[in-house]
Amino acid sequence: MLMRNLTRKDTAAMASPKIDRRRQVRDAKVRVRDLSLWYGDTQALFGVDLDVAENEVTALIGPSGCGKSSFLRCLNRMNDLVPSVRIEGTVEIEGQNIYDPSVDVVELRSHIGMVFQKPNPFPKSIYENIAYAPRILGLGARRSELDEIVERSLKRAGLWDEVKDRLETPGLALSGGQQQRLCIARAIAVSPSVVLMDEPCSALDPVATATIEELIDELKDNYTIVIVTHNLQQAARVAGYTAFFHLGKIIEFNDTDTLFTNPQEKKTEDYITGRYG
Amino acid sequence: MSEPIRLTPSPQLRRRYRAEKRFKAYCIGALLLAMAFLVLFFTDMIRQGHMAFVQTEIQVEAAYNERSVDFAKRAVDEDVAPLVSRAWFRSLPRRVEHRPELMGTTRTEWVTAKADIDQYRKGNVDTLPPETLAVYERLDREGRVGYGFNTNFFTNGDSKIPENSGLWSAFVGSFYVMLIVLTISFPIGVMTAIYLEEFAPDNRFTQAIEININNLAAVPSILFGLLGLGIFINFFGVPRSSALAGGLTLSLMTLPIIIISTRAALRAVPQNIRHGALAVGASRWQTVRDHVLPVSLPGILTGTIIGVAQAMGETAPLIIVGMIAYIPDAPDSITSAATVLPAQIFTWAGMPERAYVERTAAGILVLLGLLISLNAFAVYLRHRFERRW
């Protein structure tokens, strides 16, 4: 069934003179095929296809309510928490469909980190914020191993120098930007395959935003990152690939330079030039 | 040129200000009225009850010998004996038994006076029998009558001898009942709330449960008493009048309160804390145990304490399960007959003697003191451990 659908769509795409909006990415870490999502009777995603390149930043842009956050939350099945949600299609991460019945969501989420729009450190110490996930996953049985993970994660998140002397103070005592970097450190503490970021800078001031953007740029050497952003400049600055969402569909997907300088679709052009959205 | 904008209040704005002032006055009036009632209530209780904390005592020459052990009234002067509490005479042989060195001695002791002497001295009754009055006045002139702290009130159980009656057995009964209420309704209530709030799917069934729990919290407490009588005593054969029967009954009443307040405390934990934990690969239960519960614990404890405090002040359902009996001795187990503070107050309130009226008010003061301490502790917990986001 799925195969037949794919074949039909592929043929249609080849027949189209325009660029294939599902432009294949070589060595894709995540392959999403024909993903549709309903909240109750309202359909939010319409057969979305997307490839996410390994060790690259893929940005999802688009006007509010276009489905980009819903899409992102499909990648670690956070949408499962919404009672009325229904999802069809496949999301393959390293070749395994995460919507297969044999997949356990708790296991899945330990392989896919997530950073939320609003910094949400646990109401615990900085140390505990990072050490929590490794501990429940059974990494770092000894204190020294945990210490190492905490230090490494905080260093990668660029927060170590600011907090190394006060690891026992509450995470909530940090500034907003520091809290968000703490959340990033928390997400990468268990070495996830993919890190999802849902507008990670929208609650931050420009200075903190710049710090996070630099951090994302460094992280992409080791991690595959998918970032939802409202900020087009941010997408242009940090992302290697960008997908433009509109009304639950991907209108255009390309490497960021091409998408911003030479959009193939009228809607994309209108959006990135600020005429719409 | 347009007119300059007016910055002084327009008549319409003045009307709005007047309405605001009126509304504020009503609110302050309501507040003052409520405070006036509270002050009135407290002053009345303190006025009536404070003297119960002291007790008239008489200095006597107490002779401990064979004769007085046989017939206790002979231990003191014949004319003084009618003024001394019967309870003191009654316990004399026991005192000698406990302290054999008393035997054969005559000691000057301050002993509890009879309730009518006590009430006369406190000005609550106007008259005494003439011969008693004469003795009393003589003793008073000699400085042999005075007030002492009313230890009986705190160390004795109920008694038919007014000056000998106290709150102790009711206090122990209340303590047992609270213990049972806590051990039963706290774990069940908290676990129910956690399930409903964190795990249960949102469907007709859980909604029906939720509505029914909210309704249960509003059910008149006497109905819980009937339920307790029907189920615990008649069906399960729990001993009547026992702290166990009362505690189980009050647990039924406290459960919905704990469930509702626990759910409110859990709901106050921001959703993004849960999402953060789930996103790093915590299971639902780990999320609840490690992140949601620690933060909501102060709220849960506050709700529990308030629920238990309410159970502590409850009388009606306990009357139904028989916890209104005359209990002179503190219960030694949760299955022996017991009474509780409010039930003791209720019993005394129905007694004709003036001394019991005084004790009723004093009992209310003690109960209020306990409840206020419990609530203050709840407020302290909330402030001490409250977290902000």
Properties at a glance:
heterodimer, A: alpha/beta, six-stranded mixed beta sheet, 10 strands, disordered N terminus, B: 389 residues, MetI-like fold, 2 domains, three-stranded antiparallel beta sheet, 64% helix, extended
Biggest sheet character of chain B: 3 strands, antiparallel
Low-confidence stretches of chain A: 1-22
- Based on Cα principal axes, name the global outline of chain B: extended
Helix content of chain A: 25-40%
Regarding quaternary structure, what we see is: heterodimer
Total count of helical runs of at least 4 residues of chain B: 16
Tally of separate domains of chain B = 2
Unreliable stretches of chain B (pLDDT < 50, length at least 5) are none
* SSE topology string of chain B: HEHHHEHHEHHHHHHHHHH
Outline the structure in words.
The complex is a heterodimer of chains A (277) and B (389). Chain A is of the alpha/beta class and 277 residues long. Chain A is 37% helix and 24% strand. In chain A, the strands form two sheets. Chain A has a six-stranded mixed β-sheet with strand order 6-7-8-3-9-10, with helices on both faces. In chain A, β4 (85-93) and β5 form a beta hairpin. Mean pLDDT of chain A is 86; it is low at 1-22. The model of chain B has no long low-confidence stretch (mean pLDDT 90). The A-B interface holds A 76, 78, 81, 83, 106-107, 109-111, 113-114, 116, 118, 120-123, 132-133, 136-137, 172, 183, 186-187, 189-190 and B 201-202, 270, 272-273, 275-283, 286, 290-291, 294-295, 387, 389.
Q: Layout of SSEs?
A:
The complex is a heterodimer of chains A (277) and B (389).
Chain A: H1 2-15, E1 28-39, E2 42-53, E3 57-61, H2 68-74, E4 85-93, E5 96-97, H3 105-109, E6 112-115, H4 126-136, H5 143-156, H6 160-163, H7 176-188, E7 194-198, H8 206-219, E8 224-228, H9 232-238, E9 241-246, E10 249-255, H10 256-261, H11 266-272
Parallel strand pairs in A: 3-8, 3-9, 6-7, 7-8
Antiparallel strand pairs in A: 1-2, 1-4, 4-5, 9-10
Helix pairs in contact in A: 4-5, 4-7, 5-7, 7-8
Chain B: H1 11-49, E1 54-64, H2 66-70, H3 86-90, H4 92-98, E2 105-112, H5 115-121, H6 130-141, E3 145-149, H7 151-155, H8 168-199, H9 204-217, H10 221-235, H11 243-267, H12 271-279, H13 284-312, H14 316-320, H15 341-349, H16 354-385
Antiparallel strand pairs in B: 1-2, 1-3
